[in-house]
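User: Modeling request: complex.
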Amino acid sequence: MKKHNYYIVVLFALLLSTNSCKKQYNDYTPDPNNPVTVPPYLVLRQILNDMVVYPFGDADKFGQFVLSSYTYYGTNEYWTGSADLNYGTLRNVAAMDKEAKRSAGDVNNPYSALAKFFKAYFFIDMSLKVGDVPMTEALLGLENPTPKYDSQKDVFKQSLDLLEQANNDLAALISAADVSLLGDFYFQERINGPETPLNALKSWQKVVNTYKLRVLIALSKKADDADLGVKQKFNDVLSDPAKYPIMESLDDNLQYVYNNAFNKYPNNKDNYGFDATRITVGQTWINTLSSLNDLRVMKIADPARGLGFADTDYRSFVGASNGEDVSTMGGKVEQGLYSLVGRKRYYDGYLGEPTFIVGYPEMCFNIAEAINRGWVTGDADSWYQKGIKADFDFYGVVDGDNTISFLRTLAPGDYVNYTVNFSYATYFNQPAVKYAGDNATGLGQILTQKYLAFGRNSGYEAYYQWRRTNVPTFSTGPGIGNSGVIPLRWQYPTAELSTNAANYTAAVQSQYGGDDNINLQMWIIK
Amino acid sequence: MLAAPAVSLRGQNITLYVVDGMPISSDTWNISPDDIETYTVLKGLAATAIYGSRAQNGAILITTKRGKRNAKGFSVDFNSSTQVDNGFIALPETQALYGGGERTEYAFGDGKGGGLNDGDYDVWGPKFNGQLIPQYDSPIDPATGIRQGTPYVARGVNNLKRFIQPGLLTTNSISFSGASDRANVRVSFSNSHQKGIIPNTKLDINNFNITAGYDLTSKLKIEGGLNYNRQNSPNIPDVQYGPNSVIYSMTIWTGADWDVDAPDIRGIWQPGKEGVQSVFAEYQRYHNPWFMSYEWLRGHYKTDVYGNLGLTYKFNTHLEAVLRANVSTYDVLRNEKMPYSAHPYGREENRGDYREDRRSLYDNNVEGLVKYNNKIGSAFTIDALAGVNARNFKYNSSFVTTDYLNVPGLYSFSNSVNPIKAYSYNADMLVLSAYYSVGLEFKDYLTLTTTGRVDKSSSLLKNNNTYFYPSFSLASVISDYVKMPKVISFLKVRASYATAKAPSTSAYLGPAGYPLGYGAPYVTTYGGPNFGLSDPAYTISPTYNNLTGAYAPGNKIDPNVKSSVLKSTEYGLDIRFLGNRLGFSATYYSNLIGPYIRPFPLSEASGLTAFTTNAITTKLSGAEISLMGTPIQTKTGFRWDVLVNWSTFKEVYKDYPSNFANYQFHQGDRVDKLFANLTAKTPDGQVINNGAGFPVYLPKGQYVGNGDVDWSWAINNRFTYKTFSLSFQFDGKVGGIVQDYVKRKSTEGGSNIETVQGAVGVARQYENDHHKDPGFEGSYVGEGVQVSNGAVIQYDDVTGVITNYKDLQFATNTSKVKYIQDYVSSFFNNFEHTSVAKTYAKLREVVLTYSLPMKVFGDKSVIRKIEISLVGRNLLYFFPSRFHDIDVDQYSGRNIYSGNSREPNLQTPTTRSYGFNINVGF
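Assistant: Request completed. Predicted assembly structure:
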């Protein structure tokens, strides 16, 4: 009996111990669920995804294109607080560069070349929102957890240098016939008409230089600053197309194209019952179009039938003021006194229209503006007309007969069609449209048309243009919040005060007298 | 439902259940109450330190029933209880004067925007006056194809009350136990069937338990047990705010213009479109509740198995050794069958989906320990144990979903229109531990207990993965050695100091991935590694066109990061008077929690957002007082016992580095401060309106109160007379604040009763009668003032309060708001208008028990005992708030992450319940 028990104990102990000790003690168990290194194209896709500013958001309201007429979905008030900055995306840019160099060696490669463009793009994007931002000392991780702020001027100066380098690096890769680019869904792996990796690099080179023209135009109030050399740089690009290729048509756009399954246009047929009758078009946008007898208005908006004009009468296209309170606006929309967004264009399916990141029409107007301002020589009128026509193309407005579809009543998908004749010549011969020459009136025309071409795309460019030039005149009133004043900037992220206090305080002091206030002017618009 | 429960103790959540000495993973549903012999809630770190870091918030110790020897050699127990849930203690009150729509206009077209305000509407539609309005069931003229108007009447008053049904819970269990002089065995089976208050929701739990022991010799004993538990539900409700919730679709966003009992609504499907298109009054955002209950099904199938086997060798009366092992496992499948025409957030194509969430946990402990007790000399007694433990943990889960279905009603991944989305998660962990406990008693004067535990956890970095934490406690029964006044029969004082250290683990875990924009992710008990100290890794997720992208990590790990720390000091006093008729016990504790393992915030401009290191210490201190007494005790057998409990705690930031601080929280602040949007006010407290008559909101959240309650109380009374007993418990809480979500949403939406009362009700009536008048401008003028001198209001950069009162001149607001709904929507978003104190009192439980006296059966009866109880729960609810629409008790404690939500989600209404219980012993 005793012996028997002894065996039981030993067997039992053995069993129990094998149960657990088969396993070697692993000192630290790493996370088996996520990677610590990835191929660079995975990061590239994430960066590209971060570039687009979707329509139907704040940018639409702040550019005064599309407004909410339903309180529950939000008012049309401008912001009161902080901007979201892009350091998360810039971290990805740095990571992509590192991953590319880890696999390709520390040499020029498409990812590292594009990284320079992305850096310029995202630093400028942030600076336009808040003013000075850390750049020289930024993105160093624990080496410098409290980076100093670079002045807005220095941010632009460094970014222009980065754009110069990006252009040179891309040129070198193109001449070496590099075909290693992957993960570029704007050109190389886009759904419709993917480009070869080499052609994609060529497209990106045009994007870089076209974007550079936007950056230089944004500096129009600093055109005479010797350190920046705005006029010279603009002239360099225009005078050497071989070195600085720029966009030649809408096909060259850097743009976000929507698809049916995964990336639906934010207004689409799924959402008809949510918002097709709860958003209206801003008067700053469509009252301008209708006053110019511009057929684009009939693509963008449905007629306001409560006004009692024919559907294709330009007087049927009236938008609301951002300054109006949403309650009054909502009632007027229901009574048909304001136009709703064009249901055919925006709610018929899932594709809507592509959203520009850097677009060809804007480039034409930027060149026209530079000529008008005397930075470069050239024919401003020609670029002005090219820009307008490019935007006509974007909306499918042709010279001659156009088919226009409006919703018949309220039921989705049921349209009434009209044939409307539109003559380019007549349009361009109107006094308000005919280019008035390289003077203030001409500049106003260029800026107005550029604003119209920014409609619902290109992020905050329309707002920035208004801030820089006061064109067009923006609507105000109680509906925009902030005591009826359009703010001029965003506050810095609140976390900067606790995580980078000394540098934040110094930057706010030097720019805004210590007051991180949304109503104060930053350097670039002074 | 069936998610991991929050059992809150001293502001923290208990996450450890110890069954027969071994820890198990428990959601509390996997233990049959009838198998429990005793359970103890261990409070205070000194008591729990030996169970390791998982017990640092307290532990529940359960001893299961064992086969016992009796005269007959065996016994059989049968227990049956039935409980009906009926009648709500609090329910949102809705109006039935106006139907769905906007600005008092409505006409059905296609129910999704094709009519006049007929999709995703509010309940701000026309008044029910019997006027003819095209509705969802109005006939369509076959000649013109135009939908005719039918009388618009309140046909759906109290839709929710008529939809909800009494709940039923029946539990039956039977157990057999027996013992001989060497062996004991007990087997039990219990079945619990629950029918929910929402139609077609139910849950069955079957629990099988066996325990056995055998004395191999007088010194060697073997013991083991196994528990199998199966939770089975073809449909559990989802109450999370959204189109997936019946409260959302019935109480908040639709009105009385449709009838929940109408045959077409009850018929669920449109004729000829069975399985494809449901019937309802609206098709963009809301759902037919019968469709939600009978066609949109969320299954829950969970199998919990835990068991243990142990060997005890008793060397002599002083020394014994134990070798034992256990496993605790669960396998769970949660699925969702979403039919065609369901359209929760993000699924507006109405094409159905199928999803599976599978989780599997294996947790194994092997333990050896030695126990020793003896007298040392004449003065000392020692009671000691020491042990070693190895814990081996493995977890795997997956979440897979279709992206729309090709064939309606075929719930299979291969039926997915777009590629399926699938996620997986794996985790392993090994913890090696050694521990001791020594209790030393010096005569009658003093008891000193010390414990210590050392753990080595694979969830920590190699250089700091081993950590030790001791505890000391001292108790003395003063009345044993100091002469006390006669009235004092017992006096004891106690004090303890204890520490615990915790590795990088999480108590709870959600799904492996959650690509859905609606519903509440299911959370299960976990206790495994959280990989918070792993090399920072990329996040992989789909980007454009479903192509995979990677997001670079924003944190770095401190190479010297250590386990987190908890230090606890506790003092107590127990005193009894009058021969123990009256007792009083008081405890004060003070816990220093931290430094935690936390992401230390960095300037985002550095390219990092955080440095994971040891940071932040909070101090959680509190007191508990109990008063127990027997006011009446007669010789005839009548007895009245009372127990009164009172407790309070608060937690503040003791060490709060400036990188964490912002205008809301600073060192020394309570951790449960709540911030919310408030309207701007004049210095004397009047609301400031904009030029159009709508309230202006301050740009930053303002402090509005604390989430934790100030104190809690409970009174238990128990009357016994012979074999009768009656007990009842009152309890409640005082203080704390919470936003009433259903109130806020239903007011914004126009369904709440208050939207037809008072000045708002008058304005609503005026709008209904006059909105088509030329020049209609509304009638309502909001309270407060407007800025009259055109000055711009300036706000503090950091705190958002008004800084330029001196520049502002005010005049009474005179602007009429055109449509009342827009004003209400704006005004009621102010926290002040929809917040409630968490103060409440409840008659929580009344139990009347009668045991048949033994003499009824006689010595030879087969039946040993019969006990009958009547039970009532949640019978009375006192809630001194002006809204009586929520049970704040559901939010009275902290959530499972030991936090407070400012605005918790929708709740399933709490019901009163009544039941009876029969216990028969053979």
